[in-house]
Amino acid sequence: MTKTDLRSHLSILFLTVFIDLLGFGLVIPILPTYAVQLGASSFEVGLVMAVYALMNFVFSPFWGTLSDRHGRRPVIAGTVFITAMGFLLLANAHTLALLFAARMLAGIGSANIATSQAYITDVTPPEGRAKALGLIGAAFGMGFIFGPPAGGLIKEHFGMDAVGYTAMGLSLINLVLVLALLPESLKDKDQVKKIELKPITGVIRALQNEKFRDLFLTSFIYLAAFSMMQITVALLWEEHYGLNEAEIGYMFAFVGLSSAIVQGTMVGWLSRTFGEPRLMLMGAVFCGLGLLTTPFVPSEYFMPLALIPMALLAFANGCMMPSISSLLSRNATNKEQGQVLGMNQSFGSLARIAGPTLGGFLYGRHYTAPYIGGAVLMVGALIFIISYQRAGRGRLPAIHAAESP
Fold first, then answer.
1. Which pTM value belongs to this model?
2. Which pLDDT value is given to residue 402?
3. Residue 118 forms part of a structural domain
4. How many domains does the chain have?
């Protein structure tokens, strides 16, 4: 594949992921306050987020394995359509039960990130994957630049129905782009691969594989800590700092902008300079500091001091997620890329079940508790990162760096 073809394929994938996550960004910051309006407790707000992640957990390895067998393009297209139907249900979710159902359907459809990551590993050499995988994070960041403030404004002026229909429209546009412009990336399909929907069994097998275990656990702990913040920070900003929905959207947009800058422009240089294992160490430290300082910003100096912990978290995300995905893809064979990256998404989904549930519970006890607890969790992540390095597995990717994908 020529460099021109590579850039073209990655640009199209970036666009499709961006539009997908733009719809996600429209909805996610206002869901906690909307759930409260429907009568949800702090714990139930966590459950609304957790059920979405539960569906991600169940279906991420399934979609990844399915893409190893039948190709990336049909799986991406099918899951984008399912996401659109989830947003359609959200537009009509005027009870807490329907909101849960809408998030379940959206969770099934959005469990396609591993397939997008596998697409990248299909078309990029191992030594360039951290930079290319950073595109997924950059697309996520861009979605959070434009999505949250737009979602806040739409809900404030037109209601939650309009937010759901807007997100559905974006997903349908995305489906057209995938079908019209995104070529298939997988040339060597594994037609004999067994496709199972047994996530618990898969997790147990994954934890028995020393080649991936520490990376999976690091991903789980980091995302659990991050999601504890993500689910409660809108309530924190509204209840303790007096922000309205539009202003909360702008705060999320800042996080998105920071993430896009880090993952879109800095990940390649950081990876070459420090290496992925060291980047994970840096990310764990910055994440812990960002979480710990978030609820202690003085009210009278909320702006600009509140931006500092958000910038730390954005930088941590840029260090952690592309590095973990890159190391996993380098250690996986070509025919198991979708499966391994899908399993990583499953661990991430488990984290997004545990994190919001625990975060909502802790927030109900004290508004600072989710952030202090998240910082403590990052100490655990540091332990697994150090274990990974001391076992010498952090040097494995260098062995594979010269191999063709």
1. 0.67
2. 33
3. yes
4. 1
